Amino acid sequence: MIFIDGRNTKMKVSNFANLEEILVKLMEDETMDNRIVTDVLVNDEAFSELYPHQAEDIDASDIQKVEIRSVSMATMAADVTGELYKVITLMTVGARRVAQEMRQAEIGSGLEVLQDVVDVTRNFLTTFSILREEFSIHREHELLPLTTKLSDLLEEINDVLAQEDWILLADLAEYEFLPVCDAWTAILGNLADDIAQYKVA
After folding, report:
1. Whole-prediction pTM value?
2. For residue 200, which phi and psi values (nearest 5 degrees)?
3. Each residue of 128-145: pLDDT tens digit?
4. Helix 140-163 crosses helix 107-134 at what angle (to 10 degrees)?
């Protein structure tokens, strides 16, 4: 038996040589257009490849049931957008703490928080870039300057770290980084609107 999101496809496992052939055929199903696979179950157990093309090594004779579960790209993106709000909050709280600790000469703990802020910011930019590629975003004129500003700030922070200018670092966190975070919060609302329109379309 082979299922897509609980629906029996009527395809037979015995018609395939291995699991990879089954998965490739399932992804060709028209119901999978604009959807993202979240889980693959083989004989009711979760399956994920430990190495490339591992599915090819699983003989169909060892399989009684295959099921893939998926969500629409729009749903996934909306969920990710919601998570990005939380990330922006972390970035904002972290930047405030960096500024405070640097001004209080708590350099060690301030640098630890800064590293977390930098890592989270890089992940934020990467995730946002993926969303922007996948969905029609109507506000490129707003997005690109903010993306550039945040990237430039990361480079500037790195330069200031090399100079060990802790007061300048505090100023960057408070007077440069925080306003950009605020601007991003507004843009995320716009992104959610764009994705909602995509979902309806």
Report:
1. 0.62
2. -70, -35
3. 777 766 665 555 667 778
4. 150
